[in-house]
Design a protein that fits this description.
Distance between the termini: 40 Å
Strand content: 5-15%
Number of strands: 10
Radius of gyration: 26 Å
Oligomer: single chain
Length: about 300
């Protein structure tokens, strides 16, 4: 192996003898490197040239912040081959991805499928590290605090903490029947006030609840507030390294069934029993939606608790 140092970033590299006398790119800064033809006699022992370097042991948890303090400290092999340095792995939910180019991981982050602080690793790195702590990803647009495009076109980052609360699903269902669903409506819309706003039209808890009691306007507002709640919770889940899988289709179906029930009652006032079927379907879908949202919130709180105590 040939031991060289990049003059652009100071990174120490070990290159196979078969590349002696050639030029290459530094995997750290992308600068040109001239590989000398003489082999360093004091070069340390490394893995065989044909052995591909493997990622270090999976971290016990994902990065906990955007400053890179939550990176795992598991050491990786020290050998570096320029060919393997082009491929990256990411770790999500304690599972390591297949090798892929940096641009593919950046695209997944931009699509919201990976958090900006997802742990990444490539050949030559000692530890897993958050993507937003590495210059390669920052230069590609992966920022420590992901901005979200608002309705007015302005960018507003998120910096406030999340104050979501855990709640027993059994008690949640019981209160739903005892209060005719009023408790669940208020409880879920209170979550708007427990997350930092990202967009100019993200409602507060008071606005989310109050607008539901405005006649006629509430027919639009119930669709908006529940779909936006799903979106905001999914964004928090992605930042935590969890899948953003709270379905927005459920509140849409819930609202459509509500509209159908009201329309049936108006058009078939003489046969009010005709509205029973959509009303029952609406009640079932609404309860399922409420349970799914609270279950996902409980999961988020449990993950946060494990990370704080682990």
């Amino acid at each position: 192996m040939i031991d060289i140092v990049c003059h652009g970033c100071g990174k120490r590299l070990k290159v196979s003898e078969q590349h002696a006398g050639r030029k290459g790119k530094c995997p750290g800064c992308g600068g040109d490197i001239e590989i000398p033809s003489r082999v360093q006699e004091a070069a340390p022992q490394t893995a065989p040239e044909d052995a591909e370097q493997q990622p270090p042991q999976l971290p016990l948890q994902d990065a906990s912040g955007s400053d890179g303090q939550g990176a795992a400290r598991t050491r990786a092999p020290q050998a570096l081959e320029p060919e393997s340095a082009c491929e990256w792995h990411y770790c999500l939910n304690e599972q390591t991805s297949i090798p892929m180019p940096l641009r593919d991981i950046v695209e997944l982050v931009r699509q919201g499928k990976l958090p900006t602080n997802v742990l990444v690793w490539r050949g030559g790195m000692v530890h897993w590290a958050p993507a937003n702590a590495l210059p390669e990803f920052c230069d590609a647009g992966v920022n420590a605090v992901p901005p979200v495009l608002t309705v007015g076109g302005a960018l507003q980052p998120t910096t406030a903490p999340y104050l979501l609360d855990e709640f027993s699903i059994g008690v949640f269902v019981l209160l739903h029947f005892l209060t005719g669903g009023v408790f669940n409506v208020i409880w879920l819309n209170l979550m708007h006030g427990r997350m930092p706003p990202r967009r100019v039209d993200d409602p507060s808890a008071g606005k989310a609840i109050g607008f539901l009691f405005i006649p006629f306007f509430n027919l639009y507002w119930m669709l908006f507030t529940y779909r936006r709640l799903c979106l905001r919770l999914n964004e928090v889940r992605v930042e935590m390294g969890l899948p953003g899988d709270i379905p927005q289709a459920l509140p849409t179906a819930m609202c459509v069934l509500t509209y159908c029930t009201l329309a049936t009652m108006v058009m078939c006032s003489c046969f009010i029993y005709v509205a029973i079927l959509p009303a029952l379907a609406n009640a079932v879908v609404t309860l399922i939606f409420f349970i799914i949202v609270q279950s996902k919130v409980n999961e988020m709180i449990e993950v946060r608790r494990r990370r704080q105590t682990g």
